[in-house]
Amino acid sequence: MSDPASINHEAGDVAKATARGRGPRGLIASPGSILPLLAGCVVLILSGLVHGMWTSRWQNVADSPIVARLAEVPTLVGTWESIHEAKINEEFQKIAGLSGYVQRTYRDRQTGATVTMLLMCGEPGPVSVHPPEACYSGQGYEVVGGSRRTVEIATSDASPAGAATKPRFKSARFAKPGVLVPSQPQIFWAWSDDGHWRVPENTRFEFAGSPILCKLYVTWDAPLSDTDSPNKVTSRTPPEEFLEVLVPQLFKTVFSREGDRS
Predict the structure, then answer these.
(1) Which positions ≥6 away from 55 have C-beta within 8 Å?
(2) Contact (CB, 8 A) for 217 and 117
């Protein structure tokens, strides 16, 4: 057993050494060893914050008013009337990070043209990736050369959310190599977190930190006549006509905050 007097003597030596800025080896770290440790902690914390923002780790996206308002997307949009509503399987919803969606087929009462609309909302990280090129390539499709373009939509109402630019969508036709068909699926797509639809170069970075993100697809079967080139894209298609009346309606029913203040 140690002598109490000896213990007190050693404790006194430690106190004196500490007061002089020194200490027993291993008890007091030098500034040179603390700084790298602190820097590592800062990097770890910042990376965790960034990842948390991208994955909505601290937010319950399903509780967003935008998800609740998806049920209010009108079945009649201008002259376009919903004629069919489809379901997405739960496995895909989970993989895509979806908290809500609407998938409908609309038909123009005047022309008879039909388009399919898929509006998906959920976690910004998963929703910001997997554009149609990735999804369709997995089914054996390729983008038809020369068909990819960016389209500005001339909406019937003023630009939503005070946007300085018109809504912008990407568009492309898809085809299976070596397969002759009378039509090709043409898709228009964009992302939005505030009702202003856009197609940024880096979608994941653009919407990092957004509480929720929505992605909109509008698709139709673009016909190919005998005089059409496979690369030909008409100047104004039924999806563009549909989007002109749909975008303002989505802003009013899904993205507007007027309902939250009532």
Answers:
(1) 123, 125
(2) yes
